Amino acid sequence: MREFQDRVAVVTGAASGIGRALAGQCAREGMRVVLADVDEEPLQSAAAELTAAGARVLAVRTDVSQTGEVEALAEKTLTTFGAVHLLCNNAGVGAGLSTWEASMEDWTWVLGVNLWGVIHGVRAFVPRMLEHGMEGHVVNTASIAGLLPFSPCAPYQVSKAAVVSLTENLDESLRLRDAKVRASVLCPGWVRTRILESERLRPGGPVQPQSPPSEQMRAMFEMARQAVEHGLAPEQVALQVFDAIREQRLYIFTESEFTDVMRAHFESILAARHERTASSQSAPGIPEGDAHPYH
């Protein structure tokens, strides 16, 4: 997909962070933009800003974990703009600790937004994109955490690894059909977003963990917070996404600092061994043994 003028883009998680930056870049490319988010006030604010800048915008409050709401989003998009050319399944949250310490509520919420939100988006929009037979693209936001061997937030890592696999399958399925639609998976590292403040969006409000985090875990999350604060601007990520769409690249990596860690991890997989070499290498700004990136 190389032409964006007057095309239609749908962005979930569009009220802040990467989603807000993607929506802004869509508008700058001359696209008509549908913004979806569960956070109503920031959603309307983002829509007002883009409208004031001259963009044609539709804002729809959407909980992507609910298939009916995503289907309604698709219908409103088609009713308003008549087509969909670019779908950015970007909404994401993070919660929980280790695999056994994360509550069932943590698992349900994080997988509901991060994984089922993408599944719902693909199921609601891709058939409609294929039906129109026009050139299009799907961008699913995962995380570099979905490719690395350790994150202290198990539900987050599991959800993002699943999004990587889902997107690989989606793109290959589209190619086998010789479709004009392609897919990319965005795997950002440290980006200045509010991902570490996800609890503000939890249905019913923030909850206390079933067991308090250890001193080591608290230190890791504090280092993650600092790394996020000094991460890439979301606008830089949005520019990289559009470059990847033009080039039809499946994988979108926002920075090269994690290359050696990923290489060591995948080499250990190919050698059919389990070593701590990959997980113990330092991510930027994180002491050895504490690599746990978020987007």
Task: Please tell me about this protein's structure.
This protein is an alpha/beta fold and 295 residues long. It has a single domain (8-280), classed as NAD(P)-binding Rossmann-like Domain (Rossmann fold, 3-Layer(aba) Sandwich), CATH 3.40.50. Helix content is 46%, strand content 12%. It has 10 helices and 7 strands. It has helices spanning 17-28, 40-52, 67-81, 104-114, 116-132, 154-176, 215-229, 234-247, 259-270, 277-280, and strands spanning 8-12, 32-37, 57-61, 86-89, 136-141, 181-187, 251-253. The protein has a 7-stranded parallel β-sheet, with helices on both faces. Strand 2 (32-37), helix 2 (40-52) and strand 3 (57-61) form a beta-alpha-beta unit. The longest helix is centred in the middle third of the chain and has 23 residues, at 154-176. The relative contact order is 0.14. Mean pLDDT is 89; it is low at 277-294.
What is the secondary structure topology, with strand pairs?
Elements: E1 8-12, H1 17-28, E2 32-37, H2 40-52, E3 57-61, H3 67-81, E4 86-89, H4 104-114, H5 116-132, E5 136-141, H6 154-176, E6 181-187, H7 215-229, H8 234-247, E7 251-253, H9 259-270, H10 277-280
Parallel strand pairs: 1-2, 1-4, 2-3, 4-5, 5-6, 6-7
Helix pairs in contact: 1-8, 3-5, 4-6
